[in-house]
Amino acid sequence: MKAAVLYEFDKDMVIEEVRLADPKDREVLLRITAAGVCHSDLSTAHGKGNVQLPTILGHEATAVVERVGPGTSRVKKGDSVVLSWAPACGACFFCRAGFPTSCEVCGAAGAAGGLWDGTSRLSLPSGERISTFACQSSFAEYAVMPETGCVPIPASVSRPVAALVGCAVTTGFGAAVNDAKVRPGDSVAIWGLGGVGLSALMGAKLSGAEIIVAVDVNPKKEAVARRFGATHFVNPKAEGDVPGAIKGLTKGRGADATFDCIGKSVVFEQAFDSVRAGGTIVVVGQAAKGEAFRIPSGRNLMAAQKRIIGSHYGGGVPEQDFLRILGLYGNGKLDLDALIGKTIPLEGINDAFRELDAGIDTRTVITFA
Ligand SMILES: [Zn+2]
Ligand SMILES: [Zn+2]
Q: Per the count of CB atoms within 10 A, which of 71, 90, 120, 131 is most buried?
């Protein structure tokens, strides 16, 4: 099959033929139909994640089930599915404790660059192993992954939209709805208006937030953010004192919840200082390896009783949230079509990465014939 192979960080991926082994126990063979180009793919391609090379990126996709391995019970041949990048085992401590996105088996698989048993189904024609990314590696015509990562959806749902629900939308929407638990009348501020930030914005708006401040250094994001329901826009490059500006919009107190959808210490500090006493700072953005967040001592965590929450894949059960979000989309309550930019063939992937680096404001989605 054809796939985009990453051999070196900061270098173009190579589109070429690779091998994919048969699905093992509780695994399925999938024909990929759409795959979004997400910031986590980009930061991994820049060497900021933990992957072994060569690898095939891609973790936000839809597919059709082509064949099922032994012991599979949740999907069948021909199903249209959204893929999760955290296919949980269902049996470990964290799965049973209600934190499936911290599944120990899936976590170990990701660290090993393989599937649940640690081995990868992907290899080069020479036989050299290609590590699997996020149990998925969907920048390819086909993938093999555990059945628990495959969520059946109606075949009529837009594939690019459903692909985004597989990562960015669920991550951002859940950060607002499951983690911050935004309530009617709340004020929120969101840093970084990419796919995740805009989805957090939509989640906050749907939950009834009254003041929604979008914060981004790219002035082009103002129009996009306002289209999705932002009531205010703050550009840190133009506004020296971002927390001051947000307090000015929230009766001097600060926002009820703030969202760092970028994962940088400077952003975290602004989000920390911009939240009211007793408010919630939600860290959604993936920080680069070695990046440390400082809690400013003068603006005390303890005395102000602020709550800092790490948000991973929307903080709920992603496979259930996929269907909840697609239901809201189907009822016209979430305008997910507006997130989609270009659809391109796999061959355009390196240009898509360059555009994402340059700050494109909509999601590019690879579609397969
Ligand atoms: Zn992603
Ligand atoms: Zn588990």
A: 120
* Ligand 2 centre distance from Cα of residue 309 (Å): 22
Asked if residues 256 and 262 have their Cβ atoms less than 8 Å apart, the reply is no
Of the bound ligands, which one is closest to the alpha carbon of residue 286?
1
Give the pLDDT confidence score for residue 299 in this predicted structure.
66
Quick one: which ligand is closest to 93's CA? 2
AA letter at 365: V
CA of 115 to the centre of ligand 1 (A): 18
Ligand 1 mean position to 35 CA, how many Å?
10
Rounded to whole angstroms, the Cα distance separating 32 from 187 reads 40
Q: Each residue of 194-235: pLDDT tens digit?
A: 999 999 999 999 999 999 999 999 999 999 999 999 999 999
Q: What is the DSSP string of 35-58?
A: EE--HHHHHHHTT-S--PSSEE--
Query: CA 24, CA 302: separation in Å to the nearest integer?
Result: 50
Within 10 angstroms of residue 295's Cβ, the number of other Cβ atoms is: 14
Domains of the chain, each with CATH number or no CATH: 2-156+335-367 (3.90.180.10), 171-312 (3.40.50.720)
Six-digit token pair at 172?
């951002």
In the reported structure, the alpha carbon of residue 192 is separated from the centroid of ligand 1 by a whole-number distance in angstroms of 14
Q: Report the SS3 class of residue 132.
A: strand
